[in-house]
Structures are given as C-alpha cells and as structure tokens.
Amino acid sequence: LAATTMIHYMDDDTTVLEAPRFRQHLPGAPLVKAQSARGLISSNGDHVHLLKDVRLIRAAVEGTPETVMQTEYLHITPEAEQMRTDKPVLIRQGGSTLRADNWFSDGRKRALELEGRVKGIYEAQRR
Q: Across the strands, what pairs with 15?
C-alpha cells in the first residue's frame, strides 16, 4: 500500500490516505492493483478502505483479458484476501460488462459474488 500523502492520527490510531495505491500479488494468482482518491487504514492495519473513484484492475491471465472494476467504495481485508463494496459496481472484461449493487471477492476461495440488480452483457471471446 502506498499513497501520495499519509496522515496518522494518534487519538484513534487510524491513518488517512490521499491517492492510495494497493497491490496484491499472491502465489498462483494474478496481480491485483487498486487505486482511489482517498483512503483509510484501521488502527491495527487489518482493514483498508478506498474511497471515491475506486478502480481495481486484475491482470490478464492465459488468454483472458484484464478485469477492471469501478465503484465509489472498496473495503479490503488483506490478511483474509477479501474485498467488498456495498456501492454500485461496474466490471469490464474485454467487451463484457457487469453491473451490480454489491460485490464481494474471496481470494482464498477464488469466489466472486454479485448481488442486487445484477445485469450483464457477455461477449464471447474469438479464437
């Protein structure tokens, strides 16, 4: 996790971030990068909250194009390898798009859940 500015508040032990950038590259998994306008780190560092203009990119793997997710809020729990938002989300992969009201990703289970008015357009990949 990096940011252009990090301000630590000793009264509640939180850290506020300006233009944070998050990277996660776990063995056997594609690189995931996220960025936003602002962020917040919890007192024990277990939770990262990205706020405003959040953009998450999952790198392309074995013929599958990169996946780009956009939302206004993203809660990352790095140790649990989980990410979630309760705000509307737009996901693009190649010519395919998905929209939903909620999004949850569990890296350990390799599971992705979309809830609430889920709509999508799937474009088959040409070979």
A: 8, 41
pLDDT 10s digits, 65-110: 999 999 999 999 988 989 999 999 999 998 899 999 999 999 888 8
Q: Which of 31-38's residues contact partners 24+ apart within 8 Å by CB, and which partners? A: 31/58, 31/59, 32/56, 32/57, 32/58, 32/59, 33/57, 33/59, 34/74, 34/76, 34/83, 36/74
* Phi and psi angles of residue 19, each rounded to the nearest 5 degrees, phi first: 50, 55
Q: Is 78 helix (H, G, I), strand (E, B) or coil?
A: helix
- CA separation, residue 95 to residues 55, 105, 118 (Å): 18, 21, 17
What is the β-pairing status of strands 67-77 and 82-85?
antiparallel
Rounded to an integer, what distance in angstroms lies between the CA atom of residue 23 and that of residue 29? Answer: 12
Q: b/e for 11-39, b at 16 or more Cβ within 10 A?
A: eeebbbbeebebebeeeeebebebbbebb
pTM: 0.87
The closest of 24, 116, 27 to 77, measured between CA atoms, is 24
| Residues 119 and 96: beta-carbon distance below 8 Å | no
